[in-house]
């Protein structure tokens, strides 16, 4: 097995995640991009764990998934609250904390 | 507190403390003291007078001791400088104490009646006691630093008293003027003290005396700085112009300033510092020249003023000029300076109290053009005033005859020019006093119908009569004693006058000057006021341009302060503002990054991560 394919794939996924994160206005799409980046990181962890023959990387990937799940709960709650009060999911609309 | 000195002299501190304690009571007690406060004020100076007489008796009994030192406590101890709160009671300071307390007491008693209708009389007496207490501290201190405390106290009290009627704009301004001009003189005294400390290491009179004897040019500088101080306090050229404006104060204050507690301080300083002036010929000449210039200026101003008090003020300038001239003649004249100061204290107080009596009788009018013929309605005032006048112009065998002629003689010994100018001053003195007396007491009555002149009440007359007697007799009484009495302080003069009836050519010349002055005054004014608009008199009425000079000086210094202000505003403040503006600009720019847009935060984060990663990779390559 050649790890390079997996690593390149992870890098591509991560780059797509970053691009989506920077270009999208919709909070949900940004959220999805973040998830994409997290999963790209997970793929890297699993790949190296397999290559080294150490399970620590795989366990780490599980931790990331758990944290991501928790983050989704909190994040979606915030997005829904904002959407209810502003009637939009656009991330640019919610800059009033600065004022 | 006695410092090992027994008897009345050991109580010397009480001389200073009693007036100050009385002043504190009067100023703090409030309206409760309005009914009796003025008598407490009088007691605050009469008691010290009694003590001073007791001290005189003790000193006469122990003629072997020339000075007593009454230490109280160590006042300042800083490095090698040690200043005690100590008093020096010697023949010079005792003469001053007797003058201040004696003449001062009479003026205080007079003021009780003079200020009877003034609602602020208790406060007035509080200030008077500060004045007297400060002057006593000034003349009794055994070092320059403690003298300076009294010196400043006198300045403060004169400010408070000249501006006593502070609701009058002119009085408030006159008080400020006196205060500021005195500050200029104070600068001289402070600088002199600093010089003495750096060269001698002490400011005690007894320590400074022997140390300056071999001194170089710096002693002359000390002398000139002391002269500057004396000029401020004694209203000598070029710091003379405050004295005429100081007439805004109530008349007892004028009497006190002129006779006892203020202008005499400069003469005292110069005579007390004789050890400095005998070393430096330059400083001595400076004192003598300042004295001559002022004695002529004062007399000149006196010839033109229509305000009776201002004529007397010009006269004081002139007479203090005589004293300064004498003090600048060294041991030959210093004792005569004090002699003239003592007789002047008596007759000038007498004249001022007389002028106050005239004002009291004419609804506080001071313009002599509104007087005339007052001798008929106020004979006592006229008689006492005449005594003072005779003493001032030096009528034979009356005070001024002795004290002034000695000064003129000593001036001739020093330089014929000084003597001739002093003699000229005597002519003018006789002239302006004749003018004053004729315009005030003789001729047709010129006061308005609403003015009803009346003789002064007894409480005012008694001090006037006592002072008139002193004016007549002080010269003859002191003539044979004063020089010997002051010799320990001023040094032995070459010739001691021994007889009351000793005549020299100077005596004759002075009498001639007197006759010329009186005749001239009588010829000009025998028919009442004349048109006084010639060049000389207009110049004198304008106080010889003193105020114009002051204006120029003030404007020039205004210019300096303005330019300093510009530097301050644009350079110093500009620098400070520049710093905070730079900080503001930077923070405003940085604040712009925090724009509340999540995507811009995200971009920054991404860029930041990339930068850190590149940095890590590059660092890894390098290491």
**Main β-sheet of chain A, in a few words?**
none
- Total helical segments of chain A: 3
* Overall SS class of chain B: mainly alpha
> How do the helices and strands follow one another from N- to C-terminus of chain A?
HHH
Number of strands of chain A: 0
Contiguous low-pLDDT stretches of chain A (5 residues minimum) are: none
Order of helices and strands of chain B: HHEEHHHHHHHHHHHHHHHHHHHHHHH
Global geometry of chain B: globular
Tell me the span between the first and last alpha carbons of chain A.
Answer: 55 Å
Let me know the average pLDDT of chain B.
84
Q: Indicate the proportion of strand residues of chain B.
A: under 5%
Number of helices of chain B: 25
Helix content of chain B: over 70%
Beta-strand share of residues of chain A: under 5%
Q: Which strand order does the major sheet of chain B show?
A: 1-2
Q: What is the total tally of β strands of chain B? A: 2
Radius of gyration of chain A equals 17 Å
Greatest interface (CB-CB under 8 A), with counts per chain: A-B, 13 and 9 residues
Helix content of chain A: over 70%
What's the assembly state of these chains?
heterodimer
Calculate the mean pLDDT score of chain A and round it: 88
């Amino acid at each position: 097995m050649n790890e390079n394919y997996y690593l390149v794939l992870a890098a591509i996924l991560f780059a797509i995640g970053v691009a989506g994160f920077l270009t999208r206005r919709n909070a949900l799409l940004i959220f999805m991009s973040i998830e994409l980046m997290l999963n790209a990181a997970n793929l890297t962890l699993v790949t190296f764990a397999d290559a080294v023959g150490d399970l620590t990387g795989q366990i780490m990937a599980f931790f990331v998934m758990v944290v991501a799940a928790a983050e989704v709960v909190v994040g979606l709650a915030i997005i829904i609250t904002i959407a209810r009060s502003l009637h939009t999911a656009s991330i640019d609309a919610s800059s009033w904390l600065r004022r | 507190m006695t410092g090992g000195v027994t008897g009345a002299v050991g109580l010397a501190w009480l001389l200073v403390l009693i007036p100050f304690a009385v002043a504190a009571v009067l100023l703090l007690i409030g309206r409760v003291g309005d009914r009796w406060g003025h008598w407490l004020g009088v007691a605050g100076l009469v008691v010290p007078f009694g003590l001073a007489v007791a001290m005189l008796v003790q000193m006469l009994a122990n003629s072997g001791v020339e000075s007593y030192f009454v230490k109280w406590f160590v006042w300042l101890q800083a490095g090698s400088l040690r200043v005690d709160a100590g008093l020096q009671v010697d023949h010079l300071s005792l003469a001053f104490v007797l003058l201040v307390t004696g003449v001062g007491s009479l003026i205080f008693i007079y003021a009780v009646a003079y200020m009877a209708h003034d609602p602020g009389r208790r406060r007035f007496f509080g200030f008077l006691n500060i004045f007297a207490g400060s002057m006593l501290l000034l003349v009794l201190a055994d070092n320059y630093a403690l003298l300076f405390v009294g010196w400043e106290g006198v300045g403060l009290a004169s400010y408070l008293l000249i501006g006593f009627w502070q609701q009058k704009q002119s009085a408030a301004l006159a008080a400020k003027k006196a205060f500021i001009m005195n500050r200029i003189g104070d600068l001289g005294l402070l600088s002199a003290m600093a010089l003495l400390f750096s060269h001698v290491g002490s400011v005690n009179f007894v320590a400074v005396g022997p140390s300056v004897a071999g001194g170089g040019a710096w002693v002359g500088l000390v002398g000139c700085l002391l002269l500057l101080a004396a000029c401020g306090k004694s209203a000598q050229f070029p710091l003379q112009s405050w004295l005429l404006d100081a007439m805004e104060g109530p008349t007892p204050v004028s009497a006190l300033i002129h006779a006892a507690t203020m202008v005499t301080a400069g003469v005292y300083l110069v005579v007390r510092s004789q050890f400095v002036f005998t070393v430096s010929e330059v400083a001595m000449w400076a004192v003598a020249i300042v004295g001559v210039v002022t004695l002529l200026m004062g007399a000149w101003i006196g010839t033109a003023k229509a305000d009776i008090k201002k004529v007397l003020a010009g006269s004081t300038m002139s007479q203090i000029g005589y004293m300064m001239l004498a003090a600048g003649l060294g041991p030959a004249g210093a004792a005569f300076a004090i002699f003239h100061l003592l007789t002047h204290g008596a007759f000038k107080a007498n004249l001022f109290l007389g002028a106050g009596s005239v004002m009291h009788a004419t609804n506080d009018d001071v313009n002599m053009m509104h007087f005339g013929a007052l001798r008929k309605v106020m004979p006592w005032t006229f008689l006492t005033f005449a005594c003072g006048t005779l003493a001032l112009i030096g009528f034979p065998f009356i005070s001024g005859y002795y004290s002034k002629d000695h000064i003129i003689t000593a001036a001739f010994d020093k330089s014929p020019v000084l003597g001739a100018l002093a003699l000229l001053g005597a002519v003018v003195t006789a002239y302006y006093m004749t003018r004053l007396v004729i315009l005030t007491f003789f001729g047709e009555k010129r006061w308005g119908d609403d003015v009803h002149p009346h003789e002064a009440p007894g409480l005012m007359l008694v001090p006037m009569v006592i002072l008139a007697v002193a004016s007549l007799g002080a010269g003859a009484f002191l003539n044979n004693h004063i020089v010997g009495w002051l010799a320990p302080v001023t040094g032995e003069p070459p010739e001691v006058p021994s007889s009351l009836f000793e005549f020299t050519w100077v005596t004759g010349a002075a009498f001639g000057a007197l006759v010329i002055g009186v005749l001239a005054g009588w010829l000009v004014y025998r028919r009442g006021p004349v048109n006084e608009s010639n060049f000389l008199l207009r110049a004198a009425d304008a106080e010889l341009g003193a105020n114009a000079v002051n204006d120029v000086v003030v404007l020039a210094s205004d210019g300096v302060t303005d330019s300093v202000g510009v530097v301050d505003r644009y350079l110093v403040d500009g620098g400070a503002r520049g710093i905070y503006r730079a900080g503001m600009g930077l923070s405003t720019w940085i604040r712009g990054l925090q724009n509340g847009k999540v995507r811009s935060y995200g971009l920054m984060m991404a860029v930041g991560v990339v930068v850190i990663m590149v940095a890590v990779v590059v660092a890894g390559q390098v290491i």
